[in-house]
Amino acid sequence: MQKLIIFFTLCLISLVSFSQSNPLVVPLWQNGAPGFENRRNEPEQAKDWWVKNIHNPSITIFLPPKEKATGAAVVVCPGGGHRELVFNAEGVEAAEFLNSIGVAVFVLKYRLAREENSPYKFDNVKQDAYRAMRLVRSRAAEWGVDVNRLGMLGFSAGGEVVAMVAYGDGQGDKNAKDPIDRENGKPDFQMLVYPGPSFIPETIDSTAPPAFLVVANDDPCCSGSVVEILNKYRKTTVPIEVHIYAQGKHAFNMGNRSQLVTLKTWPQRMADWLGDNGYLKK
Question: In the predicted model, is pLDDT for residue 10 greater than 90?
Fold first, then answer.
C-alpha cells in the first residue's frame, strides 16, 4: 500500500511539473487573426531569448496553485522593439514571479509591426491586445479570474502595447457576433517596466487605470517616457507609483541577471504595490 501511495504521489508531481513546463497556449482567434487567417499555420521562429514570425497571436497561460490563487490576473506583453518578443525573460519569468504571489498570468504573443517584411500595422497589434483582454474576461470563470482585477504588465515595446488599450474606454461591441468581442478590453490596472515612448496620449484623464512604473534613470530610451506618464497622471486623481533607479540602463527584465541589488529586488516592489492596492485579496 505504501509503495502504491508513493507511486501515485510521484505521478502527481510529474503531472504538475509537466503542466508548468508545458503551459496551455490559446490562439486569440480560433480560425486565425481577421484578414490573415491563411497565415495562422505558419510556424513561429524562436532562438535563445526571442520569438518572432508570429502570425497566429495567442496567450500562453500560467495559473498559480489553487491554494495560492487570489483571483487577480495579468496579461503580460513582452518587449522586443516590435521586431521580436523577449518571451522568456519578460514573459515566462514574469509569469513565474506573479504565480508565486497568487496572480494568474496570460503572456501575449502579439504580431510584430516592425519585423522585417511584416505585413502588420500597429492597428493589428492593438487588435491583439484588446482581444487578449476580452478573451481572458470571457473565460474568467474557467481560469479562476476576477474580471474586475485583470491588469496588464508591459516591458519596453510591450509597455507601448499596453498604452494602446489602457487609455481608451475599452467597451466591447454588444452586438458583435463573436461573444468575446462583447467583453470589456480595458485593464483594471497597469504595470509598466521601462515602457517605450510611443502611444502615450496627449492627456491622461481620470478614466486611466491605476499605474505602477519602473525604470532606470540612465535608460536613454525610456526614462523620459516614465516621467512624462507620471506628470500626466499627477494632473488627475488616479493613483500612480513610480520607481526610478539610479542605474541599470534598459532591458533589465525581472532583475535576475543584474548585478545591482536594487534591480534584483524590483519585482518585490510590484508585489507590494499589488498588495497595498487590494489586488491580491482573495
Answer: no
